Amino acid sequence: MFKVVFIVILCLSLTNCADIECPSLVDADSLSQTQLLERLTHGCRYDRLERPVTFSESGSRLPVDVYVRWYVYFMQNLEAHDLQFKIHALLQLRFLDPRLTFRKVAPKRKQPILGEKQLRDNLWVPHIFLANERDSSIMGTNEKDILTSISPDGTVIISSRIKATLYCWMNLQKFPFDEQHCSTYLESWMYNTSELVLHWEQKRPITFDPDLHLTEYILQEAWSNESVINADLNDLRHGAFAGNYSSLDFTVGFSREVGFYLMDYFLPSMLIVGISWVSFWLRADQAPPRIMLGTSTMLTFITLASAQGKTLPKVSYIKVSEVWFLGCTLFIFGSLLEFAFVNTVIRRRRNVDVKSMSSKHILKSTIPPRISKRKIRSRSLSSATLGTDSISLTGAPTYNNYMTVHNFPINTIKETESDTDSISKVTSFTTTTNNQKVDMGLLERRGFNNCHGDDDEDGWTTLTPEQLSQWIDVRARVLFPLTFLVFNAFFWTFVYIF
Fold this sequence. Notes:
Layout: H1 2-21, H2 33-40, E1 54-55, E2 61-62, E3 64-75, E4 84-96, E5 113-115, H3 117-121, E6 128-130, E7 133-138, E8 146-150, E9 155-167, E10 179-188, E11 196-200, E12 206-208, E13 217-231, E14 243-256, H4 259-276, H5 287-309, H6 320-346, E15 352-354, H7 359-366, E16 404-405, E17 411-415, E18 425-429, E19 436-437, H8 440-445, E20 461-463, H9 465-497
Helix pairs in contact: 4-5, 4-6, 5-6, 6-9
């Protein structure tokens, strides 16, 4: 009997103690802000580990609606080589917690309760994380920049200044004339959509500082979106809890400023290509200066192209800048090939016979050298001495009007060419008696000294190697610039239209 009475008295005393320990909210208007907050968040009334609970008219539990606003202070230029960008922003969360309502207990208190990090640590706060972050932290000097506000109706607003490095997948196919779209994703970490739902604020959910400026990009537009992420056991970013999680994202559109690239890459590359064409005005036999000019322009251009490529990631697709540098490289390399070709032509030891002075026939006669196609004609010439007055069989020009001929047997050399349109040619060389002179005017009239581009009676023309190389250089002076202009027309049309 005594034990039963003792237990009853002990239980009553514990109940009274519990009533005494729970602070009263009577006359809350006379309490200070700290005292009112301590009583509102006392353990007998508030559990910060539990989310706010609201009920519908049917009595079912409703999820907590969290409204988000994002204010951007600063954005660093996109780092293409790391596919990321940095941002300093104010993240504001707003939700309703009925347990913190003090409108009825303190009707005279119209102002919200304000505090910093310590106040937030005493409250339930939704865990929101940046899904595409690489690094993030709360800004501040001595204290973290966190502002907490509790309104009389129980509305809680938590504002935090954060800095984050966010991942941004970039499409660099049109670099440096590209436009990038970088997104920021905010998701609920712990609570699925049955317990917490994220919403953007109705009015101006995303705001940018008016003084925000970017050096390499122009900020075009920004748009927001609300979605639901379906997480399963293969997706561990929500703590290995399966379910549907609320998600918010906003995307910022950037367009790249091309002034830097035009002045530092495109204009210098045009000048380098133009410098490589100077070799067309040099003589074909001046190999050292033409080789030095071609190789120096090529090496300079490769250095310029490699310096630009170091700032970009190693992607598998072809970029517009690579098309430009490849095209310019081909033009510089083409000028080197042109020099190699004309230098080979000028070092030939025989003249070239062409049917007409058209580009088609001249080019055909140079690749490879061909024997002249003429009608059958007889040419008589005495064997020449081995001195300076000799006439070569290749038709090289002579510098004396007469030549001394010795007594040699009569030799007849027949030279025949078989082609579809070939004509056999027979050339006869007749020796005369010793010390007999041969009139060179007669030989010229018969076609033996036609080495300076003179036309014979059949329309054929003989070009010397010097004339042929000069003809190629003259055409290259026009062909290369015109081709480069066509390349530029196609390139810039693709950049700004497609």
